[in-house]
Amino acid sequence: MAPAALFVACLAATACLTSATSIPSTDSASIDFGPSEVEARQNAYSIFNAIHSAMRQWGSSLNHNGMSFFLATVPAGVMLYHGTSSPHSPPGPEWLAFEIEHAEMFAHPRYGRGKPPIPPRHGTPPGTQHPLIAPYDKGQTREPEHGHGYLHLYRTTSPLNLLYLDGTSAGNTAMGTLDTQDLILRFNRSAPVWDEAGRARELCDIVVPWGLHGVLRMEAGFEIIKCADFMRGMEMVASHRRPEVGKDKGAEGDRKAERFEFVRAVAQRYHGIGAGRVVVDWSSMVSGLFYEVDLGDKEKPRLVGLKDGELRGIRGRVAEVVKAREGEGRKGVVDWQGVVDMVVGRYADRLRDMAEGGGSLEKMQGEVNSLLNIYIDYVAEDEGYRKSIHRCAKHYTSSVARVTQEDKLILTAIETVMLDICSTLFEVRNVVVEGLEAHGEALRQAREALQGLMDRLRWTRWKQCVGCNYDEICTKQQVSESRAKVKHCVSRESNAGPIDGNDGFYH
Questions:
Q1: pTM: predicted TM-score of the whole model, two decimal places
Q2: Residue 412 domain-assigned?
Q3: Is residue 285 part of a domain?
Q4: pLDDT tens digit string along 327-369?
Q5: Where in the sequence is the signal peptide annotated (predicted)?
């Protein structure tokens, strides 16, 4: 059997690497509804990518409709920031930023009475957090109640236990960025997009009884919704008054520069928040991707098609996992992101080079042999390279000690992705090393197979800008749901549209 046919047969039989058993839910309202390894296999590529992009600005911006929940901890000794109109700590719930520039965007005066600022037409403006108090806009004519804003600096004194919602879950859009919190957690199908205050209060009403301190989300920057008893687990390090609005241009700077520097700071977190500031419990992952539900378009999944019982069933599983993983239960954690990082690190650039680069048949032969020779025993008989493909597919997971039911689902997804990678590469090897086709035809067949694999994998690493200068940042802009994302290297001087917030939904 050819390697590609073997891959299809394995998926059809669901028995090559893991068994297709269903994990029952203990939620009494949904006895027959639970996560399943069959669904983990069907959604394997999306699960793989969700783990790879979690707590990373770049991937979470491109795959903005998050479907998953994780437990996460901010350790003691981490600095957090809050921009406000008062020198005093708020009671909560309130927002905390991980980046100084993020909080600085909200260190401005509170407005007096009058019509509040109107939100932008196309969702979240770049460089905005979602404060309980609307951000200052220099186009407003109302006088502020106070002439100054304040930047608060906080240090965690004990671990903050949070519920992390993946994707761009703090993005105020109607595209699906709010689905996990509005539909699964809040059971609210008609929540206003811009009701951040109400959303924060209700989320805190849900997670505090679970023993958590708040919710971790991402927009242009990662942020925490810190619930009531705001100072619990933190101490104030400083409260710095900011320049008076409109009177100290030297200190305040222009708005365009401020926005660019904010996005520059956010871009430093494209591939991770850094410094161990957030520790994710990967074994706690609960995802709509684990369930037999209608998610619509796989590249832009939505939860709007789920029935009420399905939404409640997933939320019930989140509650179960939070309870099971508290205290001693959280000790056993599989570093699933580390596993997928190893896979992407080994294959991403090589796959792209073979699929899209030029070069001779000899170069292709050398590339594919360098990737696969480790899995081939040239002495033993191995019809169709079945054993070699199996060794390749399990290379990064064979020693993983599964801890939770969710670990089994994640393992199924990763090994399904690996089976596709390995089967395709052995198919390519069969064509370019052992095949009888002419050189040109062999290269065409090999590149076609590799391009098909890349289309299925959809790794965000392949969507990064190449060659941005030191004074530029790589951005992706999507003007509306119907228009494609466009890649940019932008500088402070060239960013009049996107960075100014006048050109649509922006990542």
A1: 0.86
A2: yes
A3: no
A4: 766 667 899 999 999 999 999 999 999 999 888 999 999 999 9
A5: 1-20
Pull the structure tokens for residue 154: 């906080």
Domain shared by 423 and 490, yes or no: no
Q: What are φ and ψ of residue 486, in 5° steps?
A: -120, 135
- Note the pLDDT tens digit of each residue in 169-212: 999 999 999 999 999 999 999 999 999 999 999 999 999 999 99
Q: What angle do CA 289, 188, 83 make, to 5 degrees?
A: 90
Q: What is the 3-state secondary structure (H, E, C) of 178-221?
A: CHHHHHHHCCCCCCCCCCHHHHHHHHHHHHHHHCCCEEEEEECE
Judge whether 505 and 479 are in contact, CB under 8 Å. yes
* Helical H segments across 17-92, by residue range: 37-42, 44-53, 57-62
Q: Kindly state whether residues 436 and 476 are assigned to the same domain.
A: no
Assigned domain for 99 exists: yes
**Residue closest to 414 by CA, chosen among 335, 332, 307, 304:** 335
DSSP structural state of residue 345: H
Question: What's the domain range around 392?
Answer: 339-463
Neighbour tally for 435: CB within 10 Å: 14
Euclidean distance between CA atoms 347 and 461, whole angstroms:
11
Give residue 240's Cα distance to chain centre: 32
User: Does 56 fall in a domain?
Assistant: no
Question: Is residue 101 located within the same domain as residue 230?
Answer: yes
State the number of CA atoms in the 13 A half-sphere of 288 facing the CB. Answer: 28
**Centroid of chain to Cα 264:** 19
Rounded to 5°, angle at Cα 18 from 16 and 21: 125
Number of domain units in the chain: 3
500 plus 398 within the same structural domain: no
Question: What is the amino acid identity at position 150?
Answer: Y
Sheet containing 214-219: which strands, arranged edge to edge? 234-241, 150-156, 79-84, 94-97, 221-226, 214-219, 160-165, 68-74, 279-287
